[in-house]
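FAQ: What does a ligand-bound record look like?

Like this one, built around pyridoxal-5'-phosphate:
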Amino acid sequence: MPQISNHMPTAELQALDAAHHMHPFTTNDELTQKGARIITRADGVWLTDSDGNRILDGMAGLWCMNIGYGRSELADVAARQMRELPYYNTFFQTTHVPAIALAQRLAELAPGDLNHVFFAGSGSEANDTNIRMARTYWQIKGQPQKNIIISRWNGYHGSSVGSGSLGGMKGMHAQGGLPIPDIHHINQPDWWSEGGEQSPEEFGLARARELEQAIETLGADRVAAFIAEPVQGAGGVIIPPATYWPEIQRICDDHDILLIADEVICGFGRTGNWFGSQTTGWRPHIMTIAKGLSSGYQPIGGSIVCDEVASVIGGEEFNHGYTYSGHPVAAAVALENLRILDEEGIVTRVAEDTGPHLRAAWESLADHPLVGEAKIIGMMASIALTPDKSARAPFAAEAGTVGYICRERCFANNLVMRHVGDRMIISPPLVISKQEIDTLVERARRSLDETHAALKEQGLMKAGTRD
Ligand SMILES: *Cc1c(COP(=O)(O)O)cnc(C)c1O
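The answer part, i.e. the structure of the complex:
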């Protein structure tokens, strides 16, 4: 058997992939027919595939490649750390310098008294930690019945049994017996799809008050925590109305509920601050981190925990942890990533320079005949595709049909833009230049034009109704 390498023909690699590799969130039989796109290298914001195409990565991998591809500093740090101490655990009263240094740096970056870090290997694992930590917190305080966690429909918190239960993705709940008990979902603040006749401000308040209604129905003595993304990512880059977060903060304060910010996407500069809860104005007790923490160069996640929760949890043995909690190579790489984000002023640039440039270009798409709203915060953005803007109407075709057509046009135009139903979303590397932003938006517009033409040709411009 010859060694499998980038030099093999694409079709051969695709056949081997189809024979042996089961892909996440994929209909594998369909992919076997079509053949997976094979990415061979990447630099900055650009991917190269096995046919030599140069593709603009509008999604930063999976929302994680904040400092861009090809930073050899991270490779050097990883190699150095592997030679010095490739692995040691943090169980059983031991520690090591990379875990110490990363925890210290995160405590410095996180606002307020979020001073303590519990490490995990991913965002899913970190949210599983949060479920157990929030429930254990109330248990130690003598309220074991205060164990319900409230989250939101169409939120995304990971794909393990626990984190998938927190998430509000119905397709995920339908497989494998989710959700676990004592998770309660409320509606999302998606004004475009669900706001009806209300103004965005009224709707934001109304959706926040669903949390208060749920707490009153369930009983505040039963509710441990509320978890949410500052801005829903995988749900379609849903940016809540400005009235939403202040009201959620008030409700959690009034009812003594822990507030957990899932910062896996919004953290590390994505919204123009270090954390999305800062941009959207609220104060969590726990933050979930992953993705941009290492810019995807190593798998690592964690929970940043406030003084009060950490001190209560610290009173007993917390029977929880992962073999790779605080993995030294991952921690060292994450620390180097944070150094680059900071020293190169990347977060500030998103807030003050490239972010506003992307905003102007992105919002200009709102004049396109297919585009309803065009929304953006920092460097995450979405557009709602619609056959009728003034009615905010969905398409008559099954949700996602049109989004998929548009995504395929983007692929053909060498732009990675994702679709969530009939919303198109981007979340590019934070280091994208203004010129590359212009290229991204040009390609997006071209893809929208081609989608519009295809829809007209296929008779798909018909409006449907919301159920
Ligand atoms: C991706 C994601 C997760 C899960 O992280 P994994 O590393 O894939 O387990 C959790 N929360 C949010 C908001 C995410 O986007």
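Follow-up question: can I read anything off the structure? Yes, for example: The longest strand covers residues 114-120.
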